[in-house]
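Lab notebook: predicted structure, single chain.

Context: the supervisor wants predicted structures on file for every construct in the current expression panel, including those that have not yet been purified. This is the next one on the list. No modifications to the sequence; it matches the entry in the shared construct table.
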Amino acid sequence: MHPISLSRLLAASASATSSPRQGGVNPSVIPKSFGITAGEGRDKIQVGSCTGANNKPIPCFCPPAPDSPEFLRKLTKALTDGFIFSREQVALPITLAKFNDASDTSPETNKLRATAMIQVMQNFNLTTQGVGCPGVSAPVLGVMQQTGRIGGDASNLGNSGK
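Prediction complete. Output recorded below exactly as produced.
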């Protein structure tokens, strides 16, 4: 076993955490918030539901956190496969490589990123089409899909304090 300096070990560890793991999604191109906090507004609009954008009822597990390992894993799988299910259903509009390219901040690419994230959320269990989180559970992605801006203002659509 070769001795390794502590500083080299820490440097290697730091670089591994600041970049996407090989084959995974680059979290730096994902908004830090989707504008809704899962579990907020329980039973206020509809019994058994929580509150989404524009006071629409959503499942209380929606949306996943942008840095949720489960969300990132499912997004990576879908982007790698190019489809959520089969080739006849729910094709993703962007490849994993293009999604991960943080140097591409064009509105067109950001719109494609938002569309892919929304598609994964809407089909979150990845086994039954349409079983997941509706678009109103992630208003920031809706704004991003329309404008191409990451972190667009959707504060008036969220459920903070509701």
